[in-house]
Amino acid sequence: MVRALDRYVFTEFWKIFVTTALGFPILVNIIDLTDNLDKYLSQNLSAGRIALSYLYWLPDSMFMVLPAAVLFATVFSIGALTRHSEITAAKASGISFYRFIAPIFVGAIIATVLGLILGELAPLTNKKRLDTLEVSKINPSSDRYNFAYAADRGRVYKIGALHLVDPSIEGMMIERKGNGPDYPSYAIASNTAKYRNGKGWLLQKGAMHLLTDSMQNLTFSFDSLVDRHFTEPPKQLTLAQKAPTDMGFRELGRFITSMERSGAEVNELRVERMLKIAIPVTCIVILLFGAPLATSTQRGGAAYGVGLSLATTVIFLMLIQLTKGIGGKGMIPADLAAWLPSIIFGVVGVILFARVRT
Prior knowledge:
single chain; alpha+beta; 2 domains; 6-stranded antiparallel sheet; 6 strands; 59% helix; elongated
């Protein structure tokens, strides 16, 4: 009987979770499509390309909504079971409240794993979406100064001046983070670089620093050098840079390390990076908070459940933005800023959870 009950509780939770996790992003997509349809039509994009672009956007839009989906599923499933006296019947049969909602914990864990996967998948699908919509924007000016470009393979280009008319670079630094003697870190500094059509860039008058380990730093001077991975055309270097949300956890970590070496402020990037883990884990934390409150939804029915879920979601999102701003300014450690909303909800949730009549 317990196994049948587990399946029943999990099914009730999962139906609401899937509906919410897909329904909110689809609603956001519809609103965005309404706002941007004229722009897409003016670009002569077909209906198929537009639809495909929104399909690529689903992982990114689902990532942020997963904790809210878990909360809605918890509140409505447990609330319905409470109103129909099914939890009371289970308790009368010797099944505690904690044991009764164990399948919902399993569902929250699955949602956490799904969130971690979506966090790594979203940057890839966002890139495909931009390619589908053909919205890569090129800097209209012929020069660009003092910028960094996050390339593939964990490489970062730091460029003093880029000229497009006569494709060349003044003040070039290429950095790559390695992991040991077999794949060492290196930094290439060059005074100038010239672009050769179809052959990539030729770096001139510089030095290469090879870091095989923490104790050795080999330096080689060169008159000219060709980096076979530095093949990006000049116009590609002027494309809009990736946002932190468009980078995976590891890629963003490498970018932060490179920015730190250049003396840039990276607290905000550190918060964004840790949020890629903190937000999925919040699916479990939010369950501790929502399950005890859901037992009281019988007082106000569905309207009470909707209000409770929306209010909690708004408060949680506001806390994320607040702590992100505080952490970005360095007022508290960046990692703590990312986890602080989950910690607050977790502490309150544990207190409420411990007070539930089992």
